[in-house]
Design goal:
Elements: E1 13-19, H1 26-29, E2 33-38, E3 41-46, H2 50-71, H3 77-81
Antiparallel strand pairs: 1-2, 2-3
Length: 91
């Protein structure tokens, strides 16, 4: 059983963006970084590589747009197409 450590309500999230790789920065050399803004804080997350970080940001932005549209009477496309919310493994 996977334990849920935290959850983020995407409509409450501000900017979601990829941090461009910096060859001199150890943090971005071995993986891709991206940030999620929540309230007045930026949370930095690390993907396996820069391409995966780009994919995470793309999907999160699409889910955020979808959840905003649902709040305004939009369709429930996400819930119909999957069995539940996306999850990520944390080691």
């Amino acid at each position: 059983m996977t334990k849920l450590l935290a959850a983020v309500n995407l409509p409450q999230v501000g900017e979601i963006k990829v941090i461009d790789p910096d060859p001199e920065n150890d943090d971005t050399r071995d993986g891709g970084l991206f940030t999620i803004q929540l309230n007045s804080r930026d949370y930095t997350l690390k993907a396996a590589d820069h391409q995966e970080a780009l994919e995470w940001v793309d999907v999160l932005k699409k889910l955020k747009r979808s959840s905003s549209e649902q709040g305004e009477g939009g369709s429930d496309t996400y819930e119909k197409s999957t069995s539940g919310p996306p999850t990520a493994e944390v080691e």
